[in-house]
Design a protein that fits this description.
Number of helices: 3
CATH superfamily: START domain
CATH architecture: 2-Layer Sandwich
Distance between the termini: 48 Å
Strand order of the largest sheet: 1-7-6-5-4-3-2
CATH class: Alpha Beta
Radius of gyration: 15 Å
Strand content: 35-45%
CATH topology: Alpha-D-Glucose-1,6-Bisphosphate, Chain A, domain 4
Number of strands: 7
Largest sheet: 7 strands, antiparallel
Order of helices and strands: EHHEEEEEEH
Shape: globular
Oligomer: single chain
Helix content: 10-25%
Length: about 150
């Protein structure tokens, strides 16, 4: 039986942690403005930003030179300043049974964790997706610094 595995990365924030966290939880649909070379669009498919777990986003992005799409459910934990993006449809779920991006914002730091379950043993860990998420987090951070 496959098991959930984890890989992660940390990004040192140049923007204030509160403003960065606010972008993640309230303005994530604006990510294409910050990372247009990686993310073509983020649209709210259903739900609202006030009810935990109700927001579902559709991401269109480029990875390894290919365009992909993913639908995610967003879970927000105000107490720990953590935003979870749980994959529910899309290209990545062809490789992994489960896929979740966790971004925890601390003072001066964004901790990124990818939790995933491989469909079979031959599938590699999603280091390319971790790199993509890390670059997007850095782009969001730079965008938050510029917009103030």
């Amino acid at each position: 039986m496959a098991q959930v595995e984890k890989i992660g990365n940390n990004v040192e924030l140049k923007s204030p942690a509160e403003k960065f966290y606010k972008h993640l939880k309230d303005e994530i649909h604006r990510t294409p403005t910050a990372a247009s070379d990686k993310v073509q669009s983020v649209s709210v498919h259903e739900g609202d930003e006030e009810t935990a777990g109700s927001t579902k986003l559709i991401w269109k992005y480029t990875i390894d030179g290919k365009q992909e799409q993913m639908k995610e459910k967003v879970e927000i934990d105000e107490a720990t300043k953590t935003v979870n993006f749980v994959g529910i449809e899309g290209h990545i779920l062809e490789l992994y049974k489960t896929y979740k991006v966790i971004v925890k914002v601390e003072s001066g730091l964004a901790k990124i964790t990818l939790e995933y379950e491989k469909r079979n043993a031959e599938i590699p860990a999603p280091y390319n997706y971790l790199q993509l998420v890390t670059e997007i987090v850095k782009d969001i951070d730079a965008h938050v610094v510029v917009k103030g």
